[in-house]
Structure formats: structure tokens, C-alpha cells
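Render Cytoplasmic tRNA 2-thiolation protein 1 in 3D.
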Amino acid sequence: MTVTCSSCDKNAILKRPKTGDALCKECFYFAFEEEVHHTIINANLFVKGETVAIGASGGKDSTVLAYVLKVLNERYKYGIKLILLSIDEGITGYRDDSLETVKRNEQQYEMPLKIVSYEELYGWTMDAIVKQIGLKNNCTFCGVFRRQALDRGAMMLNVDRIVTGHNADDIAETVIMNILRGDKARLRRCTAITTGTEGALPRSKPFKYTYEKEIVMYAYFKKLDYFSTECIYSPNAYRGFARTYIKDLEKIRPRSIIDIIHSGESLSFKKEVKMPTQGTCTRCHYISSNDICKACVLLEGLNRGLPRLGIGKTHKERRKVNK
């Protein structure tokens, strides 16, 4: 039986995972783009004249983000300049291939591209780090280094803001992870659409309320050029367990993703609960809530042949460094 698009008279070819609406391709594109625009406008993400760096990995999220921001910037005259910023972690057979996708995006979307590498910034590649630390804690190194590398690359480019492709699923996963870890500081800020406003470079998430499944559908129907292979070092990542849990919830109740985000937004803490204050690292001078940032502690461990330095909160080698 033919199903009619709920927004026009054409035949519907898809059902939106987020709302359950039956839509034709064109109506889906418009609904998807308008929801992202609505998020941008409601959160006042951009100021006319800003230069914005898009954290580009070559994956579906950042590729769709770059494409949609280009469309919306032209449609609604945001007046911003968009630049692609990629981090090369040094993972042979994964990041080198995905960066080729980003280089094609550079030409397809007519955006400048800057690539910054771990080797350039830290003197280490993830391949070399994994040889030392193994596969158990490698994601800790990569996550810490990547966050700082994005800031460093953005500062090299002298941009006003970074945007990343973190979607609703990612944020819901992070809420669950921080609850399980009892991480009050991260739980408080993980649902914020913009972070880093307290003196650091602002970092925003235009896809905060956008479902991963819809990003995949948009990329598929638009025939966008993106890299779809998962990182070869992340099969045992802690986030993977939270992701499986979220996917199971979504099957039962699609609104679960948004509900978890709203729950995170509604959390409040007693005034007497002490939260870490943002400062700068005494070594590298990048943002940190400790005198020495996690990136510097991890890097010192690697350089001293103590790769577990900085893994966990009370490791004896880290206590030595902080004395």
C-alpha cells in the first residue's frame, strides 16, 4: 500500500526515527535542516562575522554537519566563515583513510582544511601509544589528546568557535556514562550545547537534538561522501556499552534519547557540592581544572616509560608528579 508524505502529496519513502512521520525525501531534508537551524537560533550559536572551525573526522556526523552548515549559512545568511579542522591521531589503516575523505570534502564544500597531528603536537602517534599501553586504556589517551588538539588547531587558525558533530545519541550516552561513574562535574556540563565560554574557545554542538539514525539517513539519501569504518582501537571502549544500552532503549521507546538529555539538563546540585574550577595548566597553558592538565600527565608518563601514569584518579605515579 502506498503511503503519502505527511507534509505533501508525494509518496513517502521513509519513516523518521525521531517522530515516526512518513515523509518523502525532500520533506525529510527540509525537516532535518530546519530542526538544526532551530537549534542554532534558539541557542544563539553564531554571531555574524565569526570564523567557525568544524571538527571534521570524515565520518557521517561531521560530514553531514559540514554540509548542513554550508546549506544553512547560505539559506539564512548567518554570515560566518566555515573551516574544516581535522585531527590526525596517527592510526594506520583508519585515520589516514578517513582524512582522504575530509580532503575530498574540502573540495566538495569549498571550505579550507587544516590538519593537525598528534605526532606534531605531542611527538606520539596512537599506533605508538597502543604499543606501550595496549588496548585497555588507549581511548583515555586518544580522548584527552584529541580534545586538546582541537583547541590547539583552532587557535592556530585564530577561529572564534569550534563546532563538533556530537549528536543526541552521543549526549545521551555521555549522560549515562557520567551517572555510572558518579562524575558530578562532567554530568553538570555534558548536556550543555556550548562549553568553554568561561575564557576558553567556545565549543558548540548543533546536532544536540539530532538522532544518529536520521544523520545516517540524510547522508545516505543525499549521497554524501563520508567514511564509515569504526576505529580499530575502540572495540572495548566503555562508551560502547552505554551505546548498546541506549540503542536497546530506543527500540522500545524512541523518545528515550531526548528524555535522557532533558533529564541531564534538569539535574541540579546542592550549593555545598564543590565543583572543579577551570584554570590553565602550568606546563602547556591550555585549559585545565588542575595545576597540571591530564594531557601533560599522560604525555609525561609516555615519555618516562610509565604509560599508566594518569590512568585513574589515585595512581601512585600520578601522585608523585603532583607533589
